């Protein structure tokens, strides 16, 4: 497996020649999957120039919206054709299970089709501006977009950006994470196969240096970034110099609140899913379980049994329930945060170690970990781990539950489990975050907006707002019978 080139510029695959070699590793066993040179600043310039020329030519933005929609549908069809191949690429790149990778591909198909449907909806409107005047507001594509994505959901994340950008008529330069470029490169091949004109979407592979050059580039009109909050701050600063539009999807430290009037088995099963899906490397992971004191012991007993039973392994093995972490660095970060919590007095209820299985020795594995009795000021409670670590806190009344849930600088997602409908609605309304699940965890649909409050981000993806992010509105005022202004009379 390899990438067809580290650059896709103006419709042509090319290799970068920076001399800075990036190695893509399979996190299951650390084996080399692909190696390529990072893009140079000159490559970034050429990619942005190609996107700019394609935009200005009108060869994409000038097409009838229905033709842009057709292209998105054709790309979705090609993804359906390549489903197994793409899922396997994603699993080798990220370590997630094939079941998850297949679900990601299916979700991407749904997102492409959703934005194909929205592309043809006319959002212009007429404004009543008085006699003798035609006044209307029209939507135009925002221009050249820099789309920068992380390693946990590479294909999914780029589709949330590219599908609406293309539906709106924008052109783009894409930069996936250096750790997981394979499926993004494949998606670009599929777009070309579907007939996307050259230069409309360009790719530069590379690390944060390449990302930084791209978001700061004066030829870029809009930046859409998904990644960590620290990087998000750097992106916002870099974009400020040329006052670009910026959209950021950042980290989360998401509360999962369990009241005592629920089926404990169901709540535990879902809490494990919320926290340990994709080894906890999910921005919306339910990493803070906030449990009513009356069911705390029963819930923790269930969590411990469930976490210890999770089968780690090769994502390609259908029996595997969870894969490894993305890298040795990510595991070291996780180990450090668990060690810090234990030093601060937390109790290790499950996990807290690498697996003993020798077959997993070369991969970046870490056992699903449950911590109780954490201090609220401990990093593991306040900061995103982005690993399989669940902290458990207790409450005794609804107000305390909401206060604990909202005691975070983040605000991406959260959940409440209760059999009381009125309480469910009260708590859902009180949680300060972009998505709230009631008696569920993790589902999303392309038609519903996704994004965070506080330090979880700026703006929304998905839904009609996810398309509006890639449009500029223009007010057009026309006086039917021109006359003197009267100002100088
Ligand atoms: P990073 O912030 O490290 O990287 C994200 C992307 O930005 C990568 O492509 C990275 O390149 C690039 N990058 C790094 N530095 C810069 C820079 N200065 N300017 C521009 N681009 C840069 O995130 P991770 O890849 O580590 O992903 C994990 C993070 O993403 C988590 O914090 C998670 O919460 C968040 N996330 C948020 C989601 C959401 O919807 N809110 C969804 C998924 C993830 P490279 O990695 O190649 O160096």
Report how far the terminal alpha carbons are from each other. 75 Å
Say which molecules are bound, naming each kind only once: NADPH dihydro-nicotinamide-adenine-dinucleotide phosphate
Lateral strand order in the biggest sheet: 2-1-9-8-7-10-11-19
* Helix content bin: 25-40%
Overall pLDDT score: 97
Beta-strand content bin = 15-25%
Number of strands: 20
Protein name: Aldehyde dehydrogenase family protein
Keywords: NAD, Oxidoreductase
Pfam families: Aldedh (PF00171)
Pathway: Amine and polyamine biosynthesis; betaine biosynthesis via choline pathway; betaine from betaine aldehyde: step 1/1
In short:
The chain is α/β, with parallel strands linked by helices and 489 residues long. 38% of the residues lie in helices and 20% in strands. Residues 13-476 form the Aldehyde dehydrogenase domain.
What does this structure look like?
The chain is α/β, with parallel strands linked by helices and 489 residues long. Helix content is 38%, strand content 20%. It is built from 15 helices and 20 strands. The strands form 4 sheets. The chain has an 8-stranded mixed β-sheet with strand order 2-1-9-8-7-10-11-19, with helices on both faces. Helix 2 (65-81) runs antiparallel to helix 4, helix 2 packs across helix 6 (182-193) and helix 9 packs across helix 10. The chain starts with 6 loop residues before the first strand and ends in a 10-residue tail after the last strand. The model has no long low-confidence stretch (mean pLDDT 97). NADPH dihydro-nicotinamide-adenine-dinucleotide phosphate binds at residues 148-153, 157, 175, 177-178, 207-208, 211-212, 215, 226-228, 231, 234-235, 249-252, 283, 384, 386, 412, 452, 457. Residues 148-153, 157, 175, 177-178, 207-208, 211-212, 215, 226-228, 231, 234-235, 249-252, 283, 384, 386, 412, 452, 457 line the site of NADPH dihydro-nicotinamide-adenine-dinucleotide phosphate.
């Amino acid at each position: 497996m390899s990438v067809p080139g580290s650059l896709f510029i103006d419709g042509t695959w090319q290799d970068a020649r920076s001399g800075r070699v990036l190695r893509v590793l399979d996190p299951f066993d650390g084996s080399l999957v692909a190696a390529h040179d990072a893009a140079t600043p000159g490559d970034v310039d050429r990619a942005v120039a190609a996107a700019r020329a394609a935009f200005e030519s009108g060869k994409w933005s000038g097409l009838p919206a229905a033709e842009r929609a057709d292209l998105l549908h054709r790309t979705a069809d090609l993804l359906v054709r390549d489903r197994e191949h793409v899922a396997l690429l994603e699993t080798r790149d990220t370590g997630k299970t094939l079941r998850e990778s297949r679900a990601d591909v299916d979700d991407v198909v749904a997102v492409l089709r959703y934005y194909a449907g929205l592309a043809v909806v006319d959002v212009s409107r007429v404004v009543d501006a008085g006699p003798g005047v035609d006044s209307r507001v029209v939507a135009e594509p925002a221009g050249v977009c820099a789309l920068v994505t992380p390693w946990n959901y590479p294909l999914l994340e780029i589709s949330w950006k590219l599908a609406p950008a293309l539906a709106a008529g924008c052109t783009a330069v894409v930069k996936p994470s250096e750790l997981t470029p394979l499926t993004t490169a494949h998606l670009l091949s599929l777009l070309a196969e579907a007939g996307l004109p050259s230069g409309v979407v360009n790719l530069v592979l590379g690390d944060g240096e390449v990302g930084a050059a791209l978001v700061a580039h004066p030829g870029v009109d809009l930046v859409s970034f998904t990644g960590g909050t620290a990087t998000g701050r750097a992106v916002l600063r870099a974009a400020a110099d040329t006052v670009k539009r910026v959209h950021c999807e950042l980290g989360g430290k998401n509360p999962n609140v369990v009241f005592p009037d629920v089926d404990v088995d169901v709540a535990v099963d879902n809490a494990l899913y919320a926290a340990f899906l994709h080894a906890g490397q999910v921005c919306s992971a339910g990493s803070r379980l906030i449990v009513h004191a009356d069911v705390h012991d029963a819930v923790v007993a269930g969590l411990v049994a469930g976490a210890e039973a999770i089968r780690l392994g090769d994502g390609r093995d259908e029996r595997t329930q969870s894969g490894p972490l993305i890298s040795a660095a990510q595991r070291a970060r996780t180990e450090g945060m668990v060690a810090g919590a234990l030093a601060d007095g937390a109790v290790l209820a499950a996990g807290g170690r690498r697996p003993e299985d020798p077959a997993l020795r070369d991969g970046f594995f870490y056992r699903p970990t449950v911590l109780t009795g954490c201090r609220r000021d401990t990093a593991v409670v306040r900061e995103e781990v982005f690993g399989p670590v669940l902290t458990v806190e207790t409450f005794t009344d609804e107000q305390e539950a909401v206060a604990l849930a909202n005691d975070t600088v983040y605000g991406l997602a959260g959940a409440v489990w209760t059999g009381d409908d009125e309480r469910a609605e009260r708590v859902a309304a009180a949680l300060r975050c972009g998505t709230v699940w009631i008696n569920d965890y993790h589902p999303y649909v392309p038609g519903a907006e996704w994004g965070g409050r506080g330090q979880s981000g700026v703006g929304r993806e998905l839904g009609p707002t996810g398309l509006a992010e890639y449009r500029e509105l223009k007010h057009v005022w026309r006086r039917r019978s021109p006359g003197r202004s009267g100002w100088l009379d």
